[in-house]
Amino acid sequence: MFTIEILGKTYNSAAVFGQLLIGLINGSFYAMLSLGVAVIFGMLRIANFAHGAQYMLGAFVAWALLNLPELFPGSGLPSIGYWPSLILAPVIVGVVGMATERIFIRRVYDLDHAYGFLLTIGLAMMVEGLLHVRFGSAGLPYGTPKEFQGTFNLGFMFLPYYRAWVIVASIIICFGTWLLIERTRLGAYLRAATENPELVQAFGIDVPRMLMLTYALGVALAGLAGVMAAPIYQVSPQMGQNLIIIVFAVVVIGGMGSILGSIVSGFLLGLIEGLTKVVYPPGSTTVIFVFMALILLARPQGLMGRT
What is the pTM of this model? Predict the structure, then answer.
C-alpha cells in the first residue's frame, strides 16, 4: 500500500484506484449508451431520450429470462442465464426498437427536432410507468455469474472479475461498432442512406428498412448495456432516468453524432468523475456538466464534432 499526492494532498492508493475503477466501470456504460445515442442521432437525426428506458428494458429482459419459472409457474420454462441473455436480451430490445421506429419514430423524421425529443420522452415515461406498476420501485436482484465470482489481487487493490469483464467487453463492443459503421460497406450504406436517401434508393436499397435497422442497432446497444449492468446495479424501472441525462452530456461533449467522440468521452468522463470523488466528493455529481459547459464555450461542436 502506498500514497498518492494530488493537488498538494496525500491520498491512500487503494481509495484512489478504487474510485478510478468505479469511474471506469461507469464510463464503460456511459460509452456504450452514448454510442447508441450517437448512432441514432448521427444517422437519423433523432435525439433518442428513450435510450435510458431501453437500457432499463435490457436489464429487465435479462432478469425476466433468469426468472421464467417464477414468472410462469407450471409452464415448464427453463431459467435462462447470463450468457444466453447477452444475445437474447439485445435482440428482443432491438425488435421492440424496430416496432417503435416503424410505428412512432418514422412519423417525425421530417418534422422539427422538438417533435422527436418530445416523442421519445413520452415513450420512455410510458415504458417506465408500465414496469413500475408491475414491479414497483424496489430494485430486483440479479446475481453475478458464477464464472465471475472472485477478484484479481493487483497488489494495491482487488479487481472483481465481473468488473474487469465489463470494462474489456465494453471497449471491444464500442470500438467494434465504430469499425462497423466507419470502415465497412454496410456502414457506408447506412451513412449514405441518411445523407442522400434518394440516390441510395436509386441503387435499389430499401432506405426505410436501413433506417429501421439503424435505430434497432442503437437500441440493441442500450439493451446490451442493460444486461451487463444487471449484476452490478439493481434492476429497477428508474435505473435509466438519471443516466440518460449524463449520457446526453457525454454525447454533447464528444460531438453530436460523432461515434468515436462519444466513446472516448464516455470513458474519459467516467475517470474524471471517479477522480473527483477522491479530490472533492460533492462535485462528483456535477463535474460532467461543468466539463460540458466549458467544452461548449471553447468548442461548441464538441471534442470530435464536425465544424
Answer: 0.93
- What grid cell was written down for 102? 416503424
C-alpha angle 176-17-287 in degrees, rounded to nearest 5: 75
Please answer whether residues 305 and 47 qualify as being in contact, where contact means their C-beta atoms are separated by less than 8 angstroms.
Answer: no
Using alpha carbons, list the distances in angstroms from residue 191 to 18, 96, 116, 196, 303. Answer: 40, 23, 20, 9, 21
Residues 95, 216 contacting (CB under 8 angstroms) = yes
Please state, in angstroms and as integers, the Cα–Cα distance from residue 197 to each residue in 15, 194, 215, 232, 299, following that order: 52, 6, 16, 42, 30
**307/296 Cα distance (integer angstroms):** 13
Class of domain 3-298 (CATH, top level): mainly alpha
The residues with which 304 forms a beta bridge, in sequence order, are none
Taking the CA atoms of the chain, what radius of gyration do you get in angstroms?
A: 20
Residues 228-239: tens digit of each pLDDT: 999 999 899 999
Delimit the domains of the chain by residue range.
3-298
Give per-residue pLDDT as tens, 113-139.
889 999 999 999 999 999 999 888 888
